[in-house]
Amino acid sequence: MQKNYIPRLFDDILKFSLKSKGAVLVVGPKWCGKTTTCKKQAKTIIELSPLNTRKQLVDFAKIAPELFLNQGKKPILIDEWQIISFIWDSIKIEVDKSGEFGQYILTGSVTDKLVNREFKDKDIYEQHTGNGRICKKMMRTMSLFESGESNGAVSLLDLKNHQVKPAICKNTIYDYAFFVCRGGWPLAINQTKDVALIQAKDYVDVLYQDDIFSLKDLNIKRNNLISLKLLKSYARNVGTQCPDSTIIKDVNIDSKTFEKYFEALQRLFVIDEVTAWNPNLRSKTAIRSKNTRYFVDPSIPVAILGLSPESLFKDMRLFGFLFESLAIRDLKVYARLLTLIFIIIEIV
Question: Which in 93, 268, 333, 345 has the greatest CB count within 10 A?
Fold first, then answer.
């Protein structure tokens, strides 16, 4: 078990967000370290995960939302906030009252529907989007730089400024096979090989057996075989632009069922597709092309397909797609921080 906090690039993103918005909603896949990272910058912590105190806290939030949101020093962290999603508008009101930044941090591994579950009629009640008061930031699993396997010698900012510096990578292809299979889960970092590799497998087991079916509003009929087959089809097509019809045919389901599963994977932050891009900004190609299929972490498709670092060398083409997935994950982590740097530079 990790005892020491490993600094994350997201630390600076969260710090700046708290300086510029009244509340910050931090989303991302389970086990990526959202709560641990947010606790470092919170002064009051409200945890809704423990079952022994959850009902009491939910009742408190329902009966007296204003008191609930002012029960300690700010910023107040509300972990797994989607359990009390009805508090959203109350947060917006509290932010408006003082106009101060950095009041609340909300964390969750599931995207909640905007319509309050307490009200069945959408015409009676709809939540405010929070635009202007609450910003949403996505946190991913750890990049190789954060986990200590990359020396950071190559800088995206330097590349942008055409300052290419020579760099030597000491990692071998065998190291990258392990990095792909281990993934960037905080619990897997600095562990023995067997402990590190089991983390993604445990994640996938819970995902296809429970998490997908936990989104009750999607009304997905529980069927572990179908959920696993769908994940396997998606995993074997990682890094490609395969059409939905390919996965539908693999799993032998109808398009409506596929759409429900696809939405579930999106709301659980399991898949992280890359949209088409073209240097010609007015090109119709970028609009009409399919997204490239990726998971939020390369270890997820590895675990779904039951692979190991050694088995990757038996299919080098698949290894290439998985390595590409690793690179895309890291680039997304670095690019998010780079965007923040650009904003600060422009202001200065």
Answer: 333
Q: In the prediction, which pLDDT does 186 show?
A: 96
Written as six digits, the tokens of 79 are 């972990």
3-state secondary structure of 295: strand
Question: CB-based contacts of 39: which residues, under 8 Å, 6+ apart?
Answer: 45, 77
Q: Report pLDDT digits (tens) over 53-80.
A: 999 999 999 999 999 999 999 999 999 9
Return the H-helix or E-strand segment holding 329.
Answer: helix 316-347
Q: How open is the CA angle 225-252-237, to the nearest 5 degrees?
A: 85
In the sheet with 76-79, reading across from the earlier edge strand, the strands are 44-47, 76-79, 104-108, 23-27, 134-138
What is the C-alpha radius of gyration for the chain, rounded to an integer number of angstroms?
A: 21
- Where does the chain show beta strands of DSSP type E? 23-27, 44-47, 76-79, 104-108, 134-138
Task: Please name which of 324, 293, 294 lies closest in space to residue 140, comparing C-alpha atoms.
Answer: 294
Higher pLDDT, 135 or 280: 135
Residue 193 has pLDDT above 70, yes or no: yes
Contact 141, 329 (CB under 8 A): yes
Instruction: Report in angstroms the alpha-carbon separations of 313 from 190, 199, 317.
Output: 24, 21, 9
Are 250 and 233 in contact, with CB atoms under 8 Å apart?
yes
Residue 196: other Cβ atoms inside 10 A: 20
Q: How far apart are CA 255 and CA 196, in angstroms?
A: 37
Establish whether the linkage from the previous residue to 75 is cis, with ω within 30° of 0: yes
> Is the pLDDT assigned to residue 113 strictly greater than 60?
no
pLDDT of res. 18 = 96
Closest CA to 78 of 124, 24, 115: 24
- For the record, the structure tokens of 223 come out as 């069927």
